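Action item from last week, closing it out:
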Amino acid sequence: MNDISTELKQLTQNYVDLWQQESGFPPASHELYGVPSPCISRTGDNVVYWLPQPFTGRDKLEKVEKAMGIIIRSELHDYFTTQYAGDMQVRFDSLNFTLLQIWSEEDFIRLQENMIGHLVTQKRLKLTPTLFIGTTASENDIISVCNLSGEVILETFGQKKREVLADNLSLFLTKLTPVFDK
């Protein structure tokens, strides 16, 4: 857990620092305004400002494992149970995307339900199981981790089209650059 946890926390701190430098405030979200979270540091006009907080849930992704009859890679358990934070805008090479984070315990439950739905679709289509960690501007393209190889990929939902971005999640996190997107 140390690598993934440490790298995610460092990336998040870099994101917070960028927001502080560019705006004088912590990261802000209009989409999360009015949604309870331990991350909320203050609210404004239709905006919530957030700072990361330690994940306090007891569960990891065991419910997804049980529902799907699979073992999820340990780095994915670690990734999703390191912290509560808002989603972050980041760049990998020339690809800008949203790195998904857990906003609250309720959000963690919703994420697991969405993962189960994603994995059911993949199973039905006989695709290798992946777990998503990011969304792109395209509705169909997502950033995922292959549960078999551990590679981070850009995949088109429901299709075999996949592009390897990094050999593993640890390496991928170190190559992300925060983007200020007010």
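Closing note: The chain is about 35% helix and 25% strand.
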